[in-house]
């Protein structure tokens, strides 16, 4: 293990990325950075991150919100539950830690919305705790080095990866550097299409020796893409349009403001609730109206391929609220609803 430790340390010392967000690090800034860059390319998220940190420079400011401002500052990053969770977490930290971001792994896990990955990153960087964050890059590197036989993302894999990485944390490198070095190794060399010719540890890699590099990490069978028809009904009063907040049981965009409507789901999915309660008769009527109409736009959310049809109706649904177009543009954060708003001028009222 010592040859690997030495090589990893020398490589990272020379190649460490000098990201701007790594300057003047604090536990709070590390937390926000990790949330912003999850499932997002750094180049795409860095400007949004800079704006957010300027608007909410600390836990206290974030806890004050309001939530609508937090969501607005997060716009364009997708997965708005992350922004809501940040807001709730800031409130918890303000109430339970006097607004000071905790750095101990065990304390971080108590914060609503903070899971293992984020807690491990913060604790390793700011508290030198030897805990593997275990993201996709870590999984590629460690599964190939040691030919770990478990499916990635399973508890068995996480345990095996943590055991495999433990000697790396026992060396001279700070724990945060170990996590970030493994991550950069996976980002730049041990990629999905590995660049073994550049690897400083190719002779130590079990998968390379057996000629099975691309077989790792072991993945579960890819889930089949599912087609969904989403029918949105548009009701207008003067210059205002009705929207409702999607409930917790709605499969997409929970808590987001949406035009009332419902999903025509594939048989593979169990029946889910609509953004609001809608009678069976109303659903059937909308289905008949929508059947001959072309699709207004298409959208993808994870493995779901969504076709959206907008229908003008003369009566709204119970509840919800009516907002002007400018208010809708400001408060409807999802890219799907932004697409729907751009299609309103095509409807005949």
Automatic annotation (TrEMBL):
It holds the Pfam family HhH-GPD. Residues 36-188 form the HhH-GPD domain. It comes from Turneriella parva (strain ATCC BAA-1111 / DSM 21527 / NCTC 11395 / H) (Leptospira parva). Its EC number is 3.2.2.-. Its cofactor is [4Fe-4S] cluster. One of its GO terms (biological process) is mismatch repair. Gene3D superfamilies: Helix-hairpin-Helix base-excision DNA repair enzymes (C-terminal) (1.10.1670.10), Hypothetical protein, domain 2 (1.10.340.30). This is A/G-specific DNA-adenine glycosylase. SUPFAM superfamilies: DNA-glycosylase. It comes from the Bacteria. InterPro entries: DNA_glycosylase (IPR011257), HhH-GPD_domain (IPR003265), HhH_base_excis_C (IPR023170), MIG/MutY (IPR044298). Adenine glycosylase active on G-A mispairs. MutY also corrects error-prone DNA synthesis past GO lesions which are due to the oxidatively damaged form of guanine: 7,8-dihydro-8-oxoguanine (8-oxo-dGTP). Belongs to the Nth/MutY family. The keyword Disulfide bond does not apply. The lineage of its organism: Bacteria, Pseudomonadati, Spirochaetota, Spirochaetia, Leptospirales. Keywords: DNA damage, DNA repair, Glycosidase, Hydrolase, Iron, Iron-sulfur, Metal-binding. Transmembrane segments: none annotated. One of its GO terms (molecular function) is purine-specific mismatch base pair DNA N-glycosylase activity. The keyword Iron-sulfur applies.
């Amino acid at each position: 293990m010592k040859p690997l430790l030495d090589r990893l340390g020398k490589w990272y010392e020379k190649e460490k990325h000098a990201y701007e967000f790594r300057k003047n690090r604090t536990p709070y800034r590390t937390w926000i950075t990790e949330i912003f860059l999850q499932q997002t390319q750094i180049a795409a998220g860095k400007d949004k991150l800079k704006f957010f940190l300027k608007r909410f420079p600390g836990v206290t400011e974030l806890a004050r919100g309001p939530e609508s401002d937090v969501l607005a500052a997060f716009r364009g990053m997708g997965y708005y539950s992350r922004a809501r969770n940040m807001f709730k977490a800031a409130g918890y930290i303000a109430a339970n830690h006097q607004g000071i971001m905790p750095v101990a792994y065990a304390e971080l896990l108590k914060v609503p919305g903070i899971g293992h990955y984020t807690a491990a990153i913060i604790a390793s960087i700011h508290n030198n705790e030897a805990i593997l964050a275990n993201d996709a890059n870590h999984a590629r590197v460690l599964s190939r080095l040691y030919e770990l036989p478990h499916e990635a993302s399973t508890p068995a894999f996480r345990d095996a990866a943590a055991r495999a990485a433990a000697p790396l944390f026992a060396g001279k490198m700070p724990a945060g550097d170990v996590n970030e070095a493994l991550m950069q190794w996976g980002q730049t060399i041990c990629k999905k299409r590995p660049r073994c010719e550049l690897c400083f540890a190719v002779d130590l890699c079990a998968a390379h020796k057996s000629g099975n590099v691309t077989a790792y990490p072991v993945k579960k069978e890819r889930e089949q893409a599912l087609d969904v028809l989403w029918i949105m009904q548009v009701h207008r009063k003067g210059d205002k349009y009705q929207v409702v907040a999607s409930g917790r049981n709605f499969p997409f965009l929970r808590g987001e403001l949406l035009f009332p409507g419902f999903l025509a789901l594939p048989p593979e999915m169990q029946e889910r609730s609509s953004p609001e309660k809608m009678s069976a008769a109303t659903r059937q009527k909308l289905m008949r109206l929508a059947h001959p109409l072309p699709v207004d736009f298409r959208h993808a959310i994870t493995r779901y391929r969504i076709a959206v049809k907008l229908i003008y109706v003369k009566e709204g649904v119970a509840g919800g609220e009516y907002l002007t177009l400018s208010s809708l543009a400001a408060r409807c954060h999802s890219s799907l609803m932004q697409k729907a708003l751009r299609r309103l001028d095509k409807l005949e009222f």
